[in-house]
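Researcher: Quick sanity check before group meeting.
Model: Go ahead. Protein one:
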Amino acid sequence: MEPGSDDFLPPPECPVFEPSWAEFRDPLGYIAKIRPIAEKSGICKIRPPADWQPPFAVEVDNFRFTPRIQRLNELEAQTRVKLNYLDQIAKFWEIQGSSLKIPNVERRILDLYSLSKIVVEEGGYEAICKDRRWARVAQRLNYPPGKNIGSLLRSHYERIVYPYEMYQSGANLVQCNTRPFDNEEKDKEYKPHSIPLRQSVQPSKFNSYGRRAKRLQPDPEPTEEDIEKNPELKKLQIYGAGPKMMGLGLMAKDKTLRKKELLCSLPDKEGPECPPTVVVKEESGGDMKVEPASPKTYLESKEELSHSPEPCTKMTMRLRRNHSNAQFIESYVCRMCSRGDEDDKLLLCDGCDDNYHIFCLLPPLPEIPKGVWRCPKCVMAECKRPPEAFGFEQATREYTLQSFGEMADTFKADYFNMPVHMVPTELVEKEFWRLVNSIEEDVTVEYGADIHSKEFGSGFPVSDSKRHLTPEEEEYATSGWNLNVMPVLEQSVLCHINADISGMKVPWLYVGMVFSAFCWHIEDHWSYSINYLHWGEPKTWYGVPSLAAEHLEEVMKKLTPELFDSQPDLLHQLVTLMNPNTLMSHGVPVVRTNQCAGEFVITFPRAYHSGFNQGYNFAEAVNFCTADWLPAGRQCIEHYRRLRRYCVFSHEELICKMAACPEKLDLNLAAAVHKEMFIMVQEERRLRKALLEKGITEAEREAFELLPDDERQCIKCKTTCFLSALACYDCPDGLVCLSHINDLCKCSSSRQYLRYRYTLDELPAMLHKLKVRAESFDTWANKVRVALEVEDGRKRSLEELRALESEARERRFPNSELLQRLKNCLSEAEACVSRALGLVSGQEPGPHRVADVQMTLAELRAFLDQMSNLPCAMHQIGDVKGVLEQVEAYQAEAREALASLPSSPGLLQSLLERGRQLGVEVPEAQQLQRQVEQARWLDEVKRTLAPSARRGTLAVMRGLLVAGASVAPSPAVDKARAELQELLTIAERWEEKAHLCLEARQKHPPATLEAIIHEAENIPVHLPNIQALKEALAKARAWIADVDEIQNGDHYPCLDDLEGLVAVGRDLPVGLEELRQLELQVLTAHSWREKASKTFLKKNSCYTLLEVLCPCADAGSDSTKRSRWMEKELGLYKSDTELLGLSAQDLRDPGSVIVAFKEGEQKEKEGILQLRRTNSAKPSPLASSTTASSANSICVCGQVPAGAGALRCDLCQDWFHGRCVSVPRLLNSLRPSPPSSPLLAWWEWDTKFLCPLCMRSRRPRLETILALLVALQRLPVRLPEGEALQCLTERAISWQGRARQALASEDVSALLGRLTELRQRLQAEPRPEEPPTLPSAPASDPLREGGGKDMPKAQGLENGDSVTSPEKVAPGEGSGKRDLELLSSLLPQLTGPVLELPEATRAPLEELMLEGDLLEVTLDENHSIWQLLQAGQPPDLERIRTLLELEKAERHGSRGRGRALERRRRRKGRTVSPPSPVSGAAAGLAGGLWNRVPPGSPYLEAGHPESPHIPKPVSPSPRRWPCTSRLTPAVVCPPQAPE
């Protein structure tokens, strides 16, 4: 590629092959097949079948490697030459004390190397200046004309390049006795491509390549601190006359001072003294003694040194042996003029200690230079020093696959500024070659190359004992395309090498990143190579065919001779690239390809190849050799011998090892080995003859294969010897091959002897065995040809043919066309024998008869001809002829029977059975079969349509029609098919009509369905839909009978029975008039139940309506009661009537319900008394000494209530957290309007608290319950909740009567009057504070007005589901806080008791109070009794304080919500009607429900206290409770009322 051209033109693509599965199974065979095409390109790509995807077997977590460092612009040969040139110039100017700064011309860095080359090509500097051709130089450097660039180039050349070129030519060297340049160390012998590690020479630790990126900047000089810290710099400072590393800058800046320092230790010289270092003294014998200088001299000169222009450095003089002091002094004279005057202008070279006047130099120097200075002789020696061998250095960091991938992806994404998978391959390719050709940009990447798979594990599954393989992994572990298997395949030459040659027989692994490259190279021994990309981004390849290998070498040597002069085997080091465009421009054919993941790339023998990675990937590669490689391998050894390059293995040893066991070789391999062995034997004869002519007759046998390779290598050409070698008795350390017998040593021929592996008689014997193996195929082929073509007129037996095929397999003959013909003949003959045996056995009766072997008559004749034409003799051919004769006789008999139709069915069936036994399909047998099938079908149709037969299904009819289509046609068959079709059409029509009746939304009445069923009865076919319709009609009739029975009974029907009937009736596909009536009754009953649930049940109540209406029979067990309540709260308890012990059948009997209710009342009362006794014994949580025990109370939250805020239930006496339950509101119980109760009437404050376990419902007023009873009376349905509500109402009315009787007694009336007087007295007292603004109450109290008793209505108990909820927040929230504070201030003024209640009066009132609290009904008498009991005891200040604190906290938290909900409630206009006493009419109404109570109820028994008070009205209906007979559906639990 010409300089200045930046566009990379991709070479043409290499061949790509996609083998089929059959081709893919033989790897080396397929490669040999494609070799004629692919070899012309040097490389090719192979895409495996799509489903060949080997698993990645590397242990990712344990895989750790250290990559190589690659600087891209050092890889390309021409760029490296330019960089080396720049390094030489930089070193030259660095020695001179200057730093190289490359100028920019036309906005690009000047190519100094190209400038120098072009100047030389144009005739040199003087000629160009003389002819004024600098413009032409600029033109050749691709600079635009007309900008006076030639003058600028001349200026730069004179300033930078010309002095260097002058030093290179030696024009400025003086004519004096100069010492030749002594290399500090001899060139070490380099062994390229060693077997353990195929890596080039490691770079010197003193190389300057790493500093190329800083070329445009001067190197910083080390400070004193750096020198002290660095031991290497310290060594150089002490023992060297000058620094060993360029640019250290450790010399004195004044050269004259340097000279004086060296002379300061001499006593006869005057001058400044240096610090005491070493003094050289002369002693006898020429030895020198080193002793410290006098400290006095140092102290005396210290003052003088302080006035010197520059301080004396610490650099010491180098000790010189065998020089006297006089000679030492005389050496400080100018090497050019031989004078020592003018010391101030005398320069001392830092390299050789020679002296030069600055005016004697060429060109002369105007002044003493500062820093390091070298004389022209040293400069020339340094610049002409041969460069060190180039190689890659190892990175210092160890990576895992994950860490390397993260680094690689980050680098690529940052470099291209886009996601890694979106970077086009073309862009990466152009950028790679741009960077490689650039001397300005120094991009460094890392490449994990040549990683040993034996140490780190292969990417393919490997069969070893380390881990167990799955069946899939086992398949890939044995595949020939597995790179661990391919080198040792049977057809591969390398399988005959015992050693595991790393990289050749054992794969190497490669972990790449973007721009990481592999340079131009050919494989060791010019072998094949195969590379598989396991995963990752593509790998770009470039290849050159083997025919152009020498051309490529010539072009690279021509373009970069400097590199090959220093490294003749540079192309074997894998460290040099050259742009494919450059090679193509010089006539080298180059191809390229992008290897993607899952693809193979094959390189052919002596095919140069290189490439780079597009990104992070993982590849694996190995070498292999086939039979066609052997000539190339021999030529490679000769090539190595000329280059004096070491071999990886001995080619002669490989050939002889294969020749020793020819029977194990593949036939093609044996032929190739025979040719190579013949050439090798001829050459060995010639070489040994030359040895005899030289006079060497001594010889001894040597087993070279047992010697290490380094002990049998020719000292001249480095070839590994095997057949023979020349050695010397006097020089045992070396030997030579017979091609270099004159280069062994200078000893006499009589002392030299031949070391040989085989004699010249043994070699032809080995060659003969190979020939026999190679020619054995021809002998065998002649035998097979004669046998297959029957050339001698005799057919061979099967055993003879099998013997020939077995011989080919044992001797491993190639899979030729002749062998394939033999195999095909054997397969065909064996198939014929098997078929003949089956045919004969099919005619023999018995258990071993083969009935499945059937062939036609034509096939039988063709089979007989096939057996006759085969080239082998088979005795089964006679049996086949006999079968043919039998078949022909049967055919004639069958034709006669068919001609005389109608024949008897028995005769036809017997003929058919005989034909089946023949084992051959005869055409007449098929006609017989059709006649038999026709008769059978007609008989089956006749039986199906017979009147006495069982009705067939539609499927049977359709099956007969389908079968009739396949029988032989006849008039009888056509008639039967027509009858079947007509019958099937009619049946399907009626079936469709029945289906519509069953599925229609509009149900038909029973009469319609009955008519359809009656008409379909005449069809002689079983119709499933008609049958279903008939069953539905029967169910509808039974349902109507049940409805009539239940409706016409003596009692109202139960709701459960009606719901069961409705559910059954809805499922019937029959239109029923009675169903609508039943649905209306059920809907009405559910509506009443829902209304009752809303009346009684709290919001989100866990109880059912029936449970609330019935007494709590287990009230005595606190744990049971609490656990039931908790279960219901959690939704775990679903039983309605378990408490009363009622079953579903008992709920249908009203007598059972009433009896259970009455028993439950008594159990409830006994249980609550027991519970009160138990809870009263529990410790109070308000006491300070309360300790945790099993007898403590448990709140509904599951915790033990303790401290302030705990409340005790007035009914069960248990303790609860005030924040966990609904508590009464004090402000709601006070009435501000006149005649309001005074605030100090504390007994009227609403402080009564019932826990949620005791107050299970809303407790509506009795008037509301009576309205529900009136609605129940109008229902034609009976509900269990109705009986329970009636019992509850009677219980409440009975308790109300007893309560009024107690309140009307003389003692209690006097107490009530006293309370009234006390209230009036308190009200008349003046109050200093305004009364609190409390919610208003009803204007009048009927009980107070009528009876003179204070029985205010307890609103909080009526809707007790959420007493302290925001919905119940009283109006006037703004003053609520002040009201609560006012009440709190009144607490100290509360005194009591205000009444004295005798025990005779208190006990009945407390019992009444207990029974009233058990009622789920709100009664005013209950509140009056509670006020009397409260006035008879001291005020409960602790409870009042607790209630006030809870109300304060609740009002503070729900102030905003309460206002909004209060406004919403006002808009709804909900009001509570004032209470009124139960009138006689209401009582009569309640008593009117007695017509629903059967005789025998305990409420109607004689002597019952309630019976005189409730008259029994006349029953509006004479019906009695029904007794269900048929339908007894399950009890339907009433739905919970929605809130």
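Researcher: Fine. The other one?
Model: Protein two, sequence then structure:
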Amino acid sequence: MEVENHDNTAAGRRSEVTSVPSGTNEKVEESAAETKVKFDLVNEPGEAQHSENNDESRGAETIAFAKPSLSNKKVKPELTLVLIGETNSIEIGSKNILIDHDEQRNVEHFSTKLYDLCGRHISVINMLGLPNIDQFPLNEEIHAFVMLLPNDLHNSHYSSGLQWLETTFGKGSMAYVMTVVTHESDDKCESALTDLKANSSFVEKRYHTCRRSMMDEVEIIALLEKIDAMVSENAPHCHSGLMCDGNKGQKEQLDHKSHKEESTNTSVVQQNQTSTLDMDMSGNKDKKSVELSEEINMKEEHQRETEALLDRLHLRDKQQQKFSPADFLKVGPPVKQNHDTSEKDVAHTFIQRLMILDYRARYICVRENSPEVSHSNPDEESDTDDTDDDDLDALYSTKVDINQSNLKTHVHPMDVQMAVFHCSDSFFKQNMITKLSQCQYALPLLVLDPVTMDIDCPLWTFRQIRKTWKITEMKDNSNIVTMKSMPICKAETPMVSFLRLGSPSLSKSELMNTLINNRHKTFFDRNCPGSTKSRHLMDGVAEIAWYCPAGKPSDAFTDCIAFCNLHGDALSNVKQRDILTDKSSVNVVLVPTQEKDDKSSAVISALHKSTKPLIILIADSDGGPVKMKKGKYKMGLNDKSQSDVSEELKNIIGKILSGSHESFKLESMAEVSGVKVDEDDKSCQKGKSAAMKIVDLLQGMDVSKIKDTYLPCQGQLWHEWCKTNKELYHLRGNIENEKCEIQQKLMQIRQEQFTVSCSEPIKLFIESLSSLSATEKDYFLKWTQILMETLSTDDLGSILQIYDEKWAEVLDLKKKHDKSNLLKSKQTELDEISTKVQPATFGLEHIFREMGQIYEAHASLQKQPERGQTDWSKYPELAAELMISGHPMALMDGDAGHVPLTWISGLLDEVIKKLGDRRVFVLSVLGVQSSGKSTMLNAMFGLQFAVNAGRCTKGAFMQLVEVSEEIKKDFEFDYVLVVDTEGLRALELEGKATLHHDNELATFVVGLGNMTLINIFGESPAEMQDVLQIVVQAFMRMKKIKLSPSCVFVHQNVTDIAAAEKNMDGKRQLQTKLDKMAQLAAKEEVCDAECFSDVIAFDVQKDAKYFAQLWEGSPPMAPPNPGYSESVQELKTTILSKAKQSAGITLSQFKSKIQDLWNALMNEQFVFSFKNTLEIAAYRKLEVQYGNWTWTLRSNMLTIENELHTKIQNGNLDKVELNHLHQESNKIYDEIKQAMTTYFDNDGDKDMLVQWRGRFESKIKEFHNEQVIEVKRKLDEVIQQKNACKKLDDKKTEFENKLLQKSKELAHQLKDKANDEDEEELQKQFNSVWSGLVRELTADTKPIEDMHYEEDQSTVLRELGFEWALIHESKRSGRYKQIAEVGDYVHYVSLTKHHGHENDMESDTRGQKNRLFEYVSEQTTKMKYSWKGYFQHEEEELIRSLIDDVEKQSLDAITSKPVATRGYNLTYLQEVANDVKQKVTEFESKRKYALKKEFTVDLLLYVFHRAERWLTESHMTFKGNNDAHSYVESKKMQYYNIFRSFCKGSSSAVVLGQLICDKLKSSTVEAVCNKTAIDLAKEMRCNFPAFNGNRSNLEKHVLKSLAEKEDFDGFITYIRHPRKQVETYIRKEVEKYISTKQGKEKALTILKKNVDDINTLVSRALNEATEKVKTHRDPDIWMEEFSSLLKDKLTFNTISCQNFDFSDSKAFDFLKEEIEKGLVSIIKELSSLSLDNMKKFRMKPDEILIEQLCNCCWVKCPFCAAVCTNTVKNHSPDKHSVLFHRPSGIDGFHTRGTQDLVINFCTTLVVSNKRFAAFPGSEDIIPYKEYQRGGEKYASWKITPDESKLTYWKWFVCQFQKQLEDHHKRKFQGGGEIPSEWRNHQKQEAIDSLDDNYL
């Protein structure tokens, strides 16, 4: 026998001799052939022949345990141990029993000490230190990885060791780990076990401790015993080889055949080790030994064939790494239909098609050109010249000329199925068997283990299967049909077993198919596509299928019957045959002949003697059915058609089963000896045990009471909470008090939930989820679901049957158009029955719902778990783990009709923690109840949504499905999040506000989805119309709130989808109906829409899909329609193609969307109430960016303005062109445009941002243009001022020359005395001349007078006819300054115009003694006016608006006057005064009351007061620019210094230097301060928290500041004139920033930098100018050069040098030296410059910031006067909004006809049933819910209900109640009484709430 050996080194390490356990003296012999083969494998190629000869001479006998050191050949180790861990965990030495070497790592080494200790060949491989494994023997069979951990380091080393092991040897190696903690002799390891138990992978019984020296024999023997126990438990018993990538290539290079022949299954070795073979001394084997040897050979052959099969199917790697559900719970490419598949892909294709319920998965065609499979070529012709006779001979010849050795047929389809089955973990096996059951295929009941050849019963795989059937019984001469539905494992049914003895010509499976379903191949028979004679894994497999009658006359049987089919010859499969014949109710045996001496006779005889009914089918007999005796039949099959045989068999089986018979129950298979049941797995048992603990508590209890008893939080309490919560949206009366009461009630319910939470089942459930390993947890959840469903099966089944009957009666009455009381009573009965459905439904989802409610209750109360309670804060984490692993999670509680927002938020937060904030594509599904939505989703994505008819999904459930790696590159998201819904028009909800519920559900899921599937079932126009109306309205709502999901319509159960004409007609009908529904919905939603495409982008040709009906025939025996699977894949293709165009949303965005949609749905006005948090957040971010962009543009324009301003002042620019400004600013503008493009294209929210892109691009363009125009305006004013004072400027040079000349002359006169004169005398001499000099210079100019503003105000008022006393009183009291902010204007008002004037006249004559009378009169008048309705709050608002309008228009008029260029004039005030008086008169003419004179006087004085500062500053500017006297006087000190210098003998160069330094000083200070102002504004804008965000951010800081200071006056200013208060805040913050240490340091750093820049500039100019005149020696040239170098940065006018003598050769050096000396002084002074000096110059940081930050929207809310916080000034069409509103009474709003201030928030009012008048005197009272009907003032606002606590303004009202009441002269009383709960809020809480509410 020749054996190839491609890798002798590896092969040589395989075992050749079977070891015998120590303690035995028996020998194991091998046949010569076996020995030859094995030694061939051991020796090198050159030694092969020699080895063969040696075998013959030695004989067949080999001793098993020759001592290793004496052996001349390689001995197979009994155990192979690999030591892993740290090298310091043991002491390696000569006395170490386990290992005494450390040189040979990665190499097998027999331990002689272990052999001496126990007489066993044990190989020990030293891999301590986790080394490189390149040289590790690839095929080494490892029985145990002994992980050595040093004590005290065990935890960290354990984790790292496992990680290395899994990476190196694969996940399967985890089952072979023995953990050993080593310690010193005197150490204790008590804590090690406790610590290691915390690891989920740790197994306590596989744990051992021993000393580091490893010298103790007792410890080592105990360790070996534990290892032996582990090996016996593991299947397979050893782990074979490496799994790391680095060695895969080498491993795959091994010759497959060699590999199979050299590998002996470890389990067989183990059997040999534990079995005693009786052998005589001569070496001859007895009969038993021969049989055992044959059995071993047969098993080895079976293993080789199995491995070959798995190799062909590319499944070898799946023997260790099994298929799991997670492998297929992924969004992959659509499954290809009707395509040939290569053999290597056939297994995966089978799985994929099975998962989508395509029963053709069993009939996959293997591609003909597949390299793995040889096919005979039927068209091949012979090239020989044979004659016709030869051809004829060839035709009749029986000789086969094909070389059989080269022919390999394709894999049998059932081998593919079983190969996949064996390569799957228990959970995927369960999924697979469930799908096979749904495909109406037979299921494996008894399976041969491909390794051990043991018989397995996969009972676990049946646990998910439920069967429903109808039993027909005769009672009282009529057929009574009863429906049954139950888990098939629990069903007790008769079982008919089919066996074949020998090889009859007829197909047993085909015969069974005709019995069960003659239109579907339940059992795979020889006529099925792909069938071959050769099959491997199916032989010996027993399959089972159930016939389920439909309760119709055509039923083959009247009750459910199990049919069992043993594949292969029953003579060979004895154990299986015995099990089936014992368990069956009827045995059917198919034999080829009836000969008595046939091998099958003994079997038939035994069956005939059995009490079990027997039917013998004889293939070669042609006799009819014969009853031999009771229960014993025989029947010939020869010359009979299948249908005849089938009918006769049905009759016989029917007769037998009509009498008494034994029943079969799947669960009874667990009791059969010799059968290994998969549920005996320890993890399965542990999971079941944990589940049973829960279910045991529920046993014996009425199912309808279980939830109330053990899940109390989700029942009445939760429903009551939901009902109470909805009352918040229907408030009446004193709504804030009512709202507080409701909130208290909600908290009470939460308290009750807290009290009853954590029942015993919930505790057990949470403990199990927390403590079990991953696999145990999966089993636990499955078992819990299975056992719970079993509890409710019977009760629910009977209720649903009664419901079906009653529903049928109601439908009949409806068809007859019966409107009698009978119909009503039947509907009432139906309602009563439907109320019983939900209590009788009990499953895992209810436990999760309870967890959610416990979490919500605890989170609301913020209470820590009490003793005996579980940690509620961990619940979301536990649920998140399950959701990630593929479990559906409830999104909406269908029973309560509510979304538990707190729970969902917590759950999604945990998912985000674990996965990251991944992007998901949300796919929502809508459709009527039981329309196949869940079935479709399960088929499409392999999901596990519940599909039981009549018990469909209650509420909305979400499930995460990962996008597979093979297609992930084509998508922008990582997961598809599927949202499945309860179903519209659910029967249980009939008569319970169904339409409202449906609209809520549809709107919710449509809003959530990036895409919505609308599922329509059947062809009923009425059904379709109802659904379409709901769906179209939902889409219309989405359009109105700017959400744009796509949609696909799926029309299921269409009778003939193949007819293209019918499809086109159907699409036309659908389009027509959609258009009609769109028009109806448009009226309902007040929206313009003529057709459905106006609502949503929809193409009926592409977005409408037609599905074949799900079942191919009539259930319950009908398989799924293959056309359905094809439709599902086509739909999946469409979904994925649309999904490619979407970026999806992040999980955090999905969470926000849930909250936004649900909060809006709580309100009746969904569109008005919807607040898109995601959109708001995206817009707020955009606002921040907009602020940054505009600041960059503004900052650039300020710099340009500054430079051009300097040029104008220097006389270098007399005209500013717009084009020039655009050119200067375009570089930065282009950069901003590019930044905008990048932001809109790349931001994560780009899909939302697109709606604002065009608008903001336009806004930036407008802003840029406005900035350019504004800078031009300012510069034009500077030029205008420059031109206006040109006359004085022209004289300035003359003045300066004369002053210089006179100073020089005077100094020359006094030169001789100057040295003796003191400073005082010099100054006296200078002063004596100066006065005359000034008179001389200004003789022809008139001084400009100062303003007399106070006098002018009085003059103007007297001219208008107002009495002096009135004017004086107003000025004295200062009341006019507060006219814009007083809370009450009634004291300015007269009841009638006539009485008003009389009162005015009287008031002039009253003195101080009548003040009390005035007060009483005022209060009386106030009450009288209010009672008559003349003077409500609205009138006060109108007066306030009049004041604001007059103020704005008057200031605009005054600031338009040319005061800075022409000076102040009294006529300016006169014009304004006349306009004001006219406006007051116009106002009075439209009102029922008059305004007193005091009002007009106060208003005029207020306007003059507001204009005073601007007028004063402008006039001072005019005077400074145009008054010669002032100018000359300002030069006195400068020329005194010149005079003094000349007196002291200074040269002209020195004096000129001093003069230049004087000029430089003022100009540098101005330049530095202006530049510092810009830079400081930039620093604060970018880094100061209040200024670096959007408008809302600024608002937050203003409110914080007011609260911290408790500044009531500031609050009133903020409420009345928010912009004024914000400007004040900005000024104070700038001032404060400069005064703080950090701010001051930053400001001084900026200042120093600007000073250094100026110093550098001047120094460079000085050097260059001096250098230039070295040859010319002309001071004028020097001055011109010096000035020109400074003119762009500094204001510096050229000084005439005619009075200076520069004849000295060193004059210019002296000049330079003097300027440098002066410059040092200037720089020093500048560096210590006070920052307050900036206030004196043109640029001021606070003014710059005010212009930037206050250039926004200042429109006030029409209800509460809260100011819009949009950063953009004119932001239409976006509506005004504010993050939260405030009580209207703060602004003085009071209840009509009372003095009660209003405490209601707008955000509460808009969900209440209250009403308001849109304008004073209006009879049209509008509900607040429809406030936008009130006109543009109201419609321009978006006021959404706010669930936040609004703590800030509640605190404000309570803190300043007295001041507010005094200010408004009204009270918080009656309907405006402050709720007591408001008084609990503290200031810090109020301030903190701003951070929570403002973005």
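Researcher: One line on it for the slide.
Model: DSSP finds 67 helices and 34 strands in the chain.
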